[in-house]
Design a protein that fits this description.
It comes from Natrialba hulunbeirensis JCM 10989. By secondary structure, this protein is of the alpha+beta class. The protein has 17 helices and 20 strands. Among the domains are: about 190 residues, Orthogonal Bundle (GROEL, domain 1); about 150 residues, GroEL. The longest helix has 25 residues.
């Protein structure tokens, strides 16, 4: 090489190695976790997020906060991915997972300062996570997961979140009813429960619609606003004068020719209208345009028509009513019709909605969320969405565990007991894992105005004597008791996923000792 230096990376690249790289990554991960920590629990605080365009989001949902934050640091992005994974897999516990991941990093940083190798920390964390999963299994309640427990799961999920003028208890009944509606022999069809928001009324007007809600209005103001026991035709047809693809001009030399052209056009339009009317359909859904003359004729016949319906909404209607999409009007037969108990068109200020209820093939229900402002309905939508997810998870698994920090106390206690039998420095990492889990009860205590250290000591003592202890919030009162007796429960899978995803993210970050960034 003649003594000349060899450049492997671009001159603009930045490289951070060793302890500096570990410290930078851990600090970034801890910062993200700290951003959501104060939102945890029934007394958690909200965050206001304002983007560059001035759009405002007010929420205490961990996944939403992390998604809205403009995070660039790659290690911090891993904590965001923890929340995303938690949200996708079980629908709730995103804040818990993120906070645990951040504290696992904090404990790892202390161990690194004590010259414990990163590989030892990773091995210890994975062993502790395995013990934690066993501890969760031991905390699973003996009672069968019935509607009452499902309501407790929903209520526990929504307590402390923005639910407008509604109580979590009243919303829980709606959530459980919705999930029960889509329960099948193969499990819960969670995707068949949708949430539709509409501002302009109190959140007390929130209701469950046994069907679907779409943003559509009748094609003619003279059409009926509601049709009972509806026969529904779904068309991919333009109900109007056909136009060619080639530009053409026709020379008309006389009034008779003009009248003949007008009569031909009227005859064509009339033919469309009569074909639809004679088919026996009460409601027509078409993905294309409807000529005003056709709309007027069908309105006079008492037929309700929705035009230019989007592909997604059309598929939902077909799914709910059992209709067959028809591509040519001549092919329309009664066998192609779908059926619904009721289809209605409702006006909400500047918005028009169509309700398709009780379809013959109805597998979908809609939680129709009302609220006075956009911020209220958005937060209510997030709260209900999380509740639907955890209820579906609990119903499918049939396993719930105590909430209010009790499960984390039990996990930490079991890990500390098992740590005594682990040799070498790995024991330090296992114990540190238990210490990291203490962040959940400590944060719950701090967010309710309690002293975190005193509350943690009391919780541990109650756990030792009673076998189960959590921080129960009832209005302004905060007591230590059995969460299962107080109806504060979580799906076991939420805890399992939080431990697993937090451990994976923390160990991945701890193992990084070299960061190479291109400018």
């Amino acid at each position: 090489m003649g003594g000349q230096p060899m450049f492997i990376m671009s001159e603009d690249s930045q490289r951070t190695q060793g302890r500096d790289a570990q410290s930078s990554n851990i600090m970034a991960g801890k910062a993200v976790a700290e951003a959501v920590r104060t939102t945890l629990g029934p007394r958690g605080m909200d965050k206001m997020l304002v983007d560059s365009s001035g759009e405002v989001v007010i929420t205490n949902d961990g996944a939403t906060i992390l998604n809205e934050m403009d995070i660039e640091h790659p290690a911090a992005q891993m904590i965001v991915e923890v929340a995303e994974t938690q949200e996708e897999e079980v629908g709730d516990g995103t804040t818990t997972a993120g906070v645990i991941a951040g504290n696992l990093l904090g404990e790892a940083e202390d161990l690194i300062d004590q010259d414990v190798h990163a590989t030892t920390i990773v091995e210890g964390y994975h062993e502790a996570a395995s013990i934690a999963q066993d501890a969760i299994d031991e905390q699973v309640g003996d009672a069968a997961v019935d509607d009452e427990i499902l309501k407790q799961v929903a209520e526990s999920s929504m307590t402390g979140k923005g639910t407008g003028g509604l109580t979590a208890e009243s919303l829980a009944e709606t959530v459980v009813e919705a999930v029960r509606h889509v329960e099948t022999d193969d499990g819960v069809a969670r995707d068949n429960v949708t949430v539709h928001t509409q501002i302009g009324a109190s959140s007390n007007a929130t209701e469950l619609v046994p069907g679907i809600v779409i943003d559509e209005e009748p094609a003619h103001e003279g059409m009926p606003s509601a049709v009972e026991d509806a026969s529904i035709a779904v068309l991919d047809v333009e109900l109007g004068v056909r136009t060619g693809d080639v530009d053409a001009e026709y020379a008309i030399d006389s009034i008779d020719q003009l009248n003949a052209a007008i009569d031909a056009e009227e005859s064509e339009v009339q033919g469309y209208a009569e074909t639809v009317a004679e088919s026996g359909a009460d409601v027509v859904i078409t993905t294309d345009d409807v000529d005003d003359r056709v709309s007027t004729f069908l309105a006079n016949e008492g037929i309700l028509v929705f035009e230019n319906v989007g592909s997604s909404d059309t598929k939902d209607i077909i799914s709910a009513t059992g209709a067959t999409r028809v591509g040519a009007l001549d092919d329309l037969e009664e066998a192609d019709f779908g059926h619904a108990d009721r289809i209605s068109a409702e006006n909400y200020g500047d918005d028009d909605l169509a309700f398709v209820e009780g379809g013959a093939a109805a597998e979908t229900v809609t939680v129709f969320v009302r609220g006075g402002t956009e911020h209220v309905v958005d937060e209510l939508e997030r709260a209900i969405g999380d509740a639907l997810d955890v209820v579906a998870t609990a119903l499918e698994s049939g396993e719930v565990v105590p909430g209010a920090g009790a499960t984390e106390i039990a996990i930490a206690d079991k890990i500390r007991q098992e740590a005594a039998g682990i040799e070498g420095r790995k024991q330090l990492a296992v114990t540190a894992f238990a210490d990291a889990l203490d962040v959940v009860p400590r944060t719950l205590a701090a967010n309710t105005g309690q002293d975190p250290i005193d509350a943690l000591v009391d919780l541990r003592a109650a756990h030792e004597s009673e076998g189960r202890a959590g921080l129960i919030t009832d209005g302004e009162d905060v007591t230590i008791g059995d969460p299962l007796e107080s109806g504060v429960v979580d799906p076991a899978d939420v805890k399992r996923e939080a431990i697993e995803s937090a451990t994976e993210a923390a160990t991945m970050i701890v193992r990084i000792d070299d960061v190479i960034a291109a400018e």
